Amino acid sequence: MELVREALAEHGIQGELIVLSDGESAIQFVHYLDAQSGKCPDLLILDLNLPKRSGREVLECLRQSAACGASPVLVLSSSDAPEDRADAARLGATRYLRKPSRLHEFMSLGAIFKTMLGSATH
Question: What's the predicted TM-score (pTM) here?
C-alpha cells in the first residue's frame, strides 16, 4: 500500500487512506459503516487476492451495502486473467487494472485515482 500512498501524493491527492489487510476486515468495515450510517470512502482500491476472504467477496459485500453500494471500486490486481476481469465486472467493479511491474507505471496510477475521485465527488 505504500506505493499507492506515493502515487496519490505524486498527483497531489490528499485525504485519509484507510488500509485493511484482509478481506474479513474489509467486510467488517463495510458492515460497520452500514450499522453506523457512515460514509463510505470516496474511492475503494481492492485486490482480488486477499487473505481470509477474497476480494470477490468484498466486492459483493460492497455492492450490497447501503453506505458503499454506489462508491467507485477500482480492482487493482496482479492477475490479467480474462475470468478475473469478467468476475470483477459482473460483481460491479468500476474499473479493473493490472498492477504495473515498473515503479514509474505504478506512480502513473495516481492520475487514474485522481480522475476516479473527481467523478465520485460530482
Answer: 0.88
